[in-house]
Write a structure and sequence with these properties.
The protein has about 280 residues and is of the alpha/beta class. Strands 6-5-4-3-2-1-8-7 form an eight-stranded parallel β-sheet. Helix 7 crosses helix 8 and helix 10 runs parallel beside helix 11. The relative contact order is 0.12. The N terminus is likely disordered.
């Protein structure tokens, strides 16, 4: 390159660089942080509960071959085998443990340490309660306080606890119009994971999108489930997934999308759900 031309080029480059530093929003307003990991897609094993009863290892192998990155346990099924054996089975099939649905009693008292130790062996950090024994506003407030304490103990061990949404969580309302779901999450610690379930929430008349936005950074794990079309896999119902996935990733703090399908022929529908999510760029 000619010296004069090179000098002009360097001046132009310097000017562009200075402009970018002075006004970075012109270049990266919508770009995600470079070091932000892409959310992974797991599957809730309750979806294949019947298949696991007859062929546990084979079903896990099929889920790995379908292409899921992880599995979320339910109904204490992870306690039916030695953790090292279960971890090896998952490792052999390219799967991680992305969570567990575990009863409240396994998260309280001396049982919490047992649960934490077991899941450390499995490489899991999400301990989610699938249901809570609360029916009144006062009981929900008490549960919120209990979970704040559980979350603090989990945090000390590098773990998270949280609560999973069901339709009933959006039925009871206090005198300000807050649902029990909102009452619980408004009252408890910000460290308590907000595991919204799109299908369950919509079934209960709730607004999953509003909840993701109301509790920014707390929806680290979420169940993605269709709504509006009977037996539809994710992407073939009436949920506006682009809007939802954008919200999960811009404000939700999502780390794991967990696919759940509770009807017949689950493996085929789970496969279709994963393929549809991949087509959406996930």
């Amino acid at each position: 390159m000619h010296q004069t031309t090179r000098r002009n080029f360097l001046r132009s480059t310097a000017a562009i660089t200075a402009g970018a530093l002075a006004a970075p929003s012109l270049f990266a307003a919508d770009a995600p942080p470079a070091n932000k990991p892409k959310p992974q897609i797991g599957v809730q094993l309750y979806s294949v509960r019947n298949e696991l009863k007859t062929d546990f290892d084979g079903t896990i192998e099929k889920l790995g071959k379908i292409g899921f990155a992880g599995v979320e346990f339910a109904s204490l099924m992870e306690r039916q085998r030695k953790p090292k054996d279960l971890r090896k089975l998952l490792d052999d099939n390219g799967l991680k443990t992305c969570g567990t649905h575990t009863p409240l009693q396994t998260l309280t008292g001396d049982a919490l340490k047992v649960t934490i130790d077991l899941h450390k062996e499995l490489g899991n950090t999400f301990l989610i309660a699938p249901s809570l024994p609360a029916k009144t506003i006062e009981q929900w407030q008490e549960m919120a306080k209990r979970f704040a304490d559980i979350a603090a103990k989990c945090k000390e061990q590098g773990m998270h606890t949280g609560y999973h949404a069901h339709a009933g969580d959006f039925k009871l309302k206090d005198d300000t119009g807050r649902t029990s779901w909102e009452l619980f999450f408004d009252t408890t610690s910000p460290d308590v994971i907000h595991q919204i379930d799109t299908g369950n929430t919509l079934d209960g008349g709730g607004d999953p999108l509003a909840m993701i936005k109301k509790y920014p950074g707390r929806t680290k794990s979420s169940h993605v489930k269709e709504h509006g079309v009977k037996d539809a896999p994710v992407g073939e119902g009436k949920v506006d997934w682009k809007t939802y996935l954008d919200a999960y990733e811009s404000v939700g703090g999502i780390e794991w999308y967990v696919v759940e399908y509770e009807q017949a022929d689950p493996l085929a529908k789970l496969k279709a759900s994963l393929e549809n999510l991949k087509k959406m760029g996930r």
